[in-house]
């Protein structure tokens, strides 16, 4: 291995950080972006809710929902290593791991959802969900939510306005219908004008309108796909009765309902699946990220009826790695830990306590426009004005960069990149929460002081409704101006 | 774990085989098929070119090209287990494994192909290749080969006539143009009528015609995608100069050329990549299966120029597991073994020796219509008549079922399922080859005797040109009538 820089290689590295960056620039597609592009982090090990760089500096991980039961959980590592030494082959041979997991998994679902298809990624799962829906309904179109992200494939990008709107020349496909983001804070129907009981139905009616318009245009809906809590769209909790009404409209139109639980499933929000908080039963559920704690494994869960439609048209579904014994050993081990360590209950306790503290911070700083969350799924929306709700995008980026200095990994979400996203490994504890909130308080206090000083007046960030945060752009963020775009 | 059948659980199992089957029927989509549906095999461990069932019966694996360096190779298992205990996170953080592998990998390619995108499966790789091609050319259509298989996703199935023609109501999409399978044995241009030097150009001219017709219809070609040796299409070697001419036509039309090396790459055919046997340099190469020896990892390799086009439109390509440190630890370890054990040279030696012996068997049995191969990629095409070349599909299935009785795992390929496919782990050795060919000889001899006896005449399988193999259908295959459909 040629390396110019041999003296700066720590015992935890094979290459110096400089050489790693150099080779990455040379050989990895530039579209594959790094966190903190201008000064990226090199991570060499992880444990629980912590990651460590090449200098063994500890970072508190507040964003990696994939490392669900904690980075490198020994029970999961052991299960994977043992199975890897036994057999690592495809699902055309019988194996116990796949059926044991399928049985355990489906016990967490309403009885209708009894059939599993194992795949390698959430993207593959959502693509297969689309195939199943189209096959079952013999219809083609899809309704997805504005700001949604459902995967990196041709088909799933077409369904993800979060993606296709960001690609130059990216156009919405005719078979895709984009429903407004059902946010109660920002959007067409908010708590400013409506009661919490009305909003869900009003946003669902927008979906109804899309269905009717599609029909007029001679089109028909195969599926509605939506996260049961919206992640990339801005950590948005669905309003009461939203899915209940949407599912009814979609089913009346002959479509099926897909719940994308790839980011929010496996107990994060206090229920095993986020759709449970909406009192609905989807026809197809996709799960992924937390399922393998880092290992590429995902799954589509559906009904016997939909599965039979797929079989009936003569499909042979083969996925080289889908359902292999190692992926399922990992998935079984992850489920063990979720159960044994009561991680969902833990998430509720830590999350509820955090929400209380965040409401206090909201009272203190007017830049916090909204705080929303459930369990260890929390969004903190920053605004320059509580009246206009203008997104404080630069400030959010600044906060993230200040967190990085404090060795806390945070990130932003939402159409305007102004929502601080909190979605940590589920072992994130009360002490971590306390630390995080203290630092957030400090950062916002510093911002507040700085604004006060600069405006040279008594109208502070704490008492005015509108503040200019342009000052936090090119200056403060000179080295960290790239936001953490995450999915 | 509820289990009715506790007494039949071997020490290597968690469930009895009966319970495994029962749970599989209950919870796994029926479209996910098993080898030998009616009497499937339960595999509990693997080592080198062997797999073992729950009774510790040894099977010789002649079909699993994924277990490239041998099932559960200790060097690979060790590398994976170690990395899994350190860090298993996404490629937004710097890590040495990804860049070291990218450097090593691209050294095996012509210098133009210097950029890597890591994904989880061959399907994801081919989908990304399609995205790259469309983005770079700003054109939409794709030419693929009849009988091709490029993956299980919506987009890749559309490009795979092997798949979409088998789905009831499955129609070719307008953006897909299917070129004839360039087979020198069966098809439009064969060695019966043309010289080996002419065939490649003639089949390439068919692609040229497709391009011209597309143009007349107002369509334009983004890409030609083709395996550099055709796997599912029937273990077909491309005729001389085929890709050279096809690539020229495609590039003249503004398209790019994608070589799908997911099944045939990594030294199997004596060259690292099968496209090298055609003297061409593709614009995009997809690799997968052997890359991780069972672990879900795949890659798209392309040029700086195409990568830049992708970046230019504003793409941020994020793949949750793509390029993670564990997948790349595995890929690096696989590459170590390929290099250290000189597996490609080994493949050539064993393969050449097998081809010689297979030509002898072809002289002996007229049911062998064609034998073709390179390295450890071999196809044996069975026919009922050498004159009409009618596919001996039932016979091929019968041979596979007889092999199973002998604890040899073989499978069939091709549009008619009459091609015995040989694509074993690369550690398959001379002794294994001798055993396999002895058994094939025995099976064909038995078939020959049986036909002779039944026709009660001296016109035997060895001397006539046409034999009726219907007798090998429902009777002989009562328990094994399902062929091994493989991808």
From TrEMBL, chains A, B:
CDD domains, per the entry: OAT_like
Keyword terms, alphabetized: Pyridoxal phosphate
InterPro entries: Aminotrans_3, Aminotrans_3_PPA_site, PyrdxlP-dep_Trfase, PyrdxlP-dep_Trfase_major, PyrdxlP-dep_Trfase_small
GO cellular component: mitochondrion
An example Gene Ontology molecular-function term: transaminase activity
Family: Belongs to the class-III pyridoxal-phosphate-dependent aminotransferase family.
PANTHER family noted in UniProt: ALANINE--GLYOXYLATE AMINOTRANSFERASE 2-LIKE, PTHR45688
Name of protein: Uncharacterized protein
Source organism: Blomia tropicalis (Mite)
């Amino acid at each position: 291995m040629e390396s110019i820089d041999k003296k700066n290689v720590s015992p935890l590295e094979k290459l110096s950080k400089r050489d790693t960056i150099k080779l990455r620039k040379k050989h990895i597609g530039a579209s594959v972006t790094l966190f903190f592009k201008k000064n990226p982090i090199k991570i060499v090990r992880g444990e629980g809710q912590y990651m460590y760089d090449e200098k063994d500096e500890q970072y508190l991980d507040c964003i990696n929902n994939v490392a669900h039961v904690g980075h490198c959980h020994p029970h999961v590592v052991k299960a994977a290593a043992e199975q890897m030494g036994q057999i690592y082959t495809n699902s055309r041979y019988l194996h116990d791991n796949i059926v044991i997991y399928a049985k355990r998994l489906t016990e967490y679902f309403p009885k209708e959802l009894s059939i599993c298809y194992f795949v390698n990624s959430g993207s593959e799962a959502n693509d297969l969900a689309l195939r199943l829906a189209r096959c079952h309904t013999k219809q083609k179109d899809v309704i997805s939510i504005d700001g949604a992200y459902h995967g990196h494939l041709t088909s799933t990008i077409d369904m993800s306005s979060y993606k296709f709107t960001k690609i130059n020349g990216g156009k919405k496909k005719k078979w895709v219908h984009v429903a407004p983001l059902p946010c109660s804070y920002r959007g067409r129907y908010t708590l400013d004008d409506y009661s919490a009981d009305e909003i869900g139905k009003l946003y669902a009616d927008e979906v109804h309108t899309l269905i009717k318009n599609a029909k007029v245009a001679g089109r028909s809906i195969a599926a509605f796909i939506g996260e049961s809590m919206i992640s990339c769209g801005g950590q948005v909790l669905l309003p009461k009765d939203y899915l209940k009404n949407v599912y009814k409209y979609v089913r009346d139109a002959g479509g099926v309902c897909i719940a994308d639980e790839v980011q929010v499933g496996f107990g994060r929000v206090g229920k095993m699946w986020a759709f449970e908080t909406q009192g609905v039963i989807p026809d197809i559920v996709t799960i992924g990220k937390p399922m393998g704690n880092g290992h590429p494994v995902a799954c589509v869960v559906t009904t016997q009826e939909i599965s039979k439609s797929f079989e009936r048209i003569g499909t042979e579904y083969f996925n080289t790695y889908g359902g292999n014994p190692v992926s399922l050993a990992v998935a079984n081990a992850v489920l063990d830990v979720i159960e044994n360590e009561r991680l969902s209950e833990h998430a509720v306790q830590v999350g509820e306590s955090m929400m209380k503290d965040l409401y206090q911070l909201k009272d203190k700083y007017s830049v916090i426009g909204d705080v929303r969350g459930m369990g260890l799924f929390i969004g903190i929306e920053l605004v320059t004005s509580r009246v206009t709700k203008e997104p404080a995008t630069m400030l959010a980026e600044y906060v993230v960069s200040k967190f990085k200095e404090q060795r806390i990994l945070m990130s932003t979400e939402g159409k305007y990149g102004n929502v601080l996203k909190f979605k940590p490994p589920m072992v994130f504890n009360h002490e971590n929460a306390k630390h995080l909130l203290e630092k957030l308080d400090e950062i916002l206090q510093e911002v507040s002081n700085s604004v006060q000083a600069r405006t040279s007046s008594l109208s502070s960030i704490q008492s005015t409704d509108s503040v200019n945060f342009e000052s936090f752009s090119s200056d403060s963020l000179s080295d960290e101006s790239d936001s953490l775009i995450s999915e």
